[in-house]
Amino acid sequence: MPEHATPQEFSILATDGRARAGRLRLPHGTVETPAFMPVGTLGTVRGLTIDQLRSTGAQMLLCNAYHLAARPGTELVAEAGGLHGFMGWDGPILTDSGGYQVFSLADMLEVSDEGVVVRTQPSGRKMLFTPEEATRMQQQLGADVAMVLDECTPYPCSRERAEVAVERTLLWARRCLGAHGGGDQALYGIVQGAYEEDLRRRCAEELAGMSFDAYAIGGVSVGEPADLRNRVIDWTAPLLPQDRPRYLMGVGLPADLLDAVRRGIDLFDCVLPTRNGRNGWAFTRNGVIRIRNSRYRKDMRPVEEDCPCWACRNVSRAYLRHLMACREMLGPVLLSLHNVTFYQRLTAAMREGIRSGTLSGFGRQWPCAERTGGGA
Amino acid sequence: MPEHATPQEFSILATDGRARAGRLRLPHGTVETPAFMPVGTLGTVRGLTIDQLRSTGAQMLLCNAYHLAARPGTELVAEAGGLHGFMGWDGPILTDSGGYQVFSLADMLEVSDEGVVVRTQPSGRKMLFTPEEATRMQQQLGADVAMVLDECTPYPCSRERAEVAVERTLLWARRCLGAHGGGDQALYGIVQGAYEEDLRRRCAEELAGMSFDAYAIGGVSVGEPADLRNRVIDWTAPLLPQDRPRYLMGVGLPADLLDAVRRGIDLFDCVLPTRNGRNGWAFTRNGVIRIRNSRYRKDMRPVEEDCPCWACRNVSRAYLRHLMACREMLGPVLLSLHNVTFYQRLTAAMREGIRSGTLSGFGRQWPCAERTGGGA
């Protein structure tokens, strides 16, 4: 134990170029990085029980404070013993503040330095959503890691809008820090600045001067090409404290993860394994299988021969295709289970690649993660 | 082993009044009766993996040959090693021929003694569905138990229609017997006759004279009141061979099961635990909990304190209500898991009640199963 109990300890165990393999200790457990967090927006990773989720190797989940505030309400979750008690997951949880949702969904009515006026769903009432409120809500949820409220910009984004978003994000970051009680919860800052190198630098340097437990890169995964996102990481990551985790928000496909890990990113979250699973995509080392395709009608092989997930050990591509064709709920469940397992195997293999200094040859074992062309 | 290998052995271990506790040996395993079969129409009990299904205590499943013939096709299932290989369930499976579906769904175009002309979904093409075809398809599916093709009548039903249906059902029963290869598959006959005592008697006596492995009572659970259904059982069950299982098709609520077990029924299937689970019903000893009700908003208790299902051991009513309110897939999954478990506990308790001669007092432990008023 350190002299002062901190909600988080992070140690880097190995590096390979700029890539880092680390260990992140949080109140509810330890996370080996690079790590991928499945997304459980409303306190459930769609379709999976907590036991199924554990079986994927997932170490840490992401939930969304903004959505949970609307339903079922953060007070109710607090009464249930926080998110851990409410949903039954006993490992680390990170909550997103909801900045991304506020700015990407249609319910934002007005934004000022004070906060954002939103129309909350499903009740439809107006609410002023402030940095202090976002912080308080995440403390009620009892997450291991809370995120600051930030202003997320779209792609493309005007210089002017990006400048305003950076200043507001910095203002709100200070207010979140001020409102945050500390205790058993880490608080991560978020770098904005769209695709402007100087704005990303300014935002990263200012935030690095504040005492956040770690730093995220936000405003990506909003439609930009991969090479532009990679430049954002190249500008930003080196300015963030070496000894703290770096989290790339909302990313992405396997090749996006590999690009980012090679640039020093430690944490990821993304809806792709579950959302695309529900739509019939199965991720494999060699690329995506679209299970509805008629070529799989009589394919009695598992989705992936060496995958340890329940679906691959028990049912065939033909059966999964049948489930999806009949809109049977078990299809989305099993493809989500496979895909979440796939992302855990992918990041475990990246950690191993870093420890053994072989990340440069990663694509030989995981062709899906190497870009064959240039860019996206 | 008997002198001639039979696909089925049935022994009665205990009786309590007319109720029987038995043991049914089938090629894929042994079923303790009275038994409830969860319904997996298309080769999947909606939302549940085979592991989850096993955890409920389910011993035997029902699938539907008619639906499986449309999607994915019985040939494909045969190539996958039959239903057992295709869906991964290694216990006994009964397939319904599809008689009920043909006569209750809108795709029946024409019926004659030869068979039924149906419009198959989703392709829309016309097909002549005959007793021989129904038998052949069920052999391709590799079920432990196949059902004859019958003509199922509605409620209410004219005398004339009921007479025609009985004669046609008897004709088709003989043709199914003739077409059935025997081997590792049992074949059950189905008694029709609507709500006419003499027709039920005639149908039961004629069928009892044919060499079916067991007998089902069909044409119930089509909207009739409970007392009328009970009378149908009272007329029919005593005429069926004592030494073979009796199966009441498509029934029902807990009180319906208890009524029928007390009248000598051994096997049941019904969509209620899964269908009503998807709609937010949770069965309990004391009656149904409608989980969307606002009274459960902050209810941190499990659905049922002594229930061993995963949902009751891990999540609260408040969490289930939240999942259903947000239309999260995990809500239907967990309520289905609970309800299927409930039906297995209910029938296990009935077996115990028969063995201990205490079935008359069943309602003290299971108030949900006793009728408080008279009738439905």
Task: Tag the structure with descriptive keywords.
homodimer; 376 residues; alpha/beta
Question: What is the third-level CATH name, the topology of the domain at 9-270 in chain A?
Answer: TIM Barrel
Tell me the CATH superfamily of the domain at 9-270 in chain A.
Queuine tRNA-ribosyltransferase-like
DSSP summary: helix tally of chain A: 15
Structural class of chain A: alpha/beta
- Which quaternary structure do these chains form? homodimer
Major sheet characteristics of chain A: 8 strands, parallel
N/C terminus separation of chain A: 44 Å
What is the approximate shape of chain A? globular
The share of residues in helices of chain A is: 25-40%
Percentage of β-strand residues of chain A:
15-25%
| Record field, number of beta strands of chain A | 16
Strand order of the biggest β-sheet of chain A: 4-14-13-12-11-10-6-5
Overall description:
The structure is a homodimer of 376-residue chains. Chain A has 376 residues and is α/β, with parallel strands linked by helices. Chain A has a domain at 9-270: Queuine tRNA-ribosyltransferase-like (TIM Barrel), CATH 3.20.20.105. Chain A contains 15 helices and 16 strands. In chain A, a hairpin with a 6-residue loop joins strand 8 (116-119) and strand 9 (126-129). In chain A, helix 10 runs parallel beside helix 14. The mean pLDDT of chain A is 95. The interface between A and B is large, with 37 and 37 residues.
Q: What are the SSEs and their pairings?
A:
Two copies of one chain form a homodimer.
Chain A: E1 9-16, E2 19-26, E3 29-33, E4 35-38, H1 50-55, E5 61-64, H2 65-70, H3 74-79, H4 82-87, E6 93-96, H5 99-104, E7 108-111, E8 116-119, E9 126-129, H6 131-141, E10 145-147, H7 159-179, E11 186-191, H8 197-208, E12 214-217, H9 226-236, E13 246-248, H10 254-261, E14 267-270, H11 272-278, E15 281-284, E16 287-290, H12 310-314, H13 317-325, H14 330-355, H15 362-365
Parallel strand pairs in A: 4-14, 5-6, 6-10, 10-11, 11-12, 12-13, 13-14
Antiparallel strand pairs in A: 1-2, 2-3, 7-8, 8-9, 15-16
Helix pairs in contact in A: 6-7, 7-8, 10-14, 11-14, 13-14
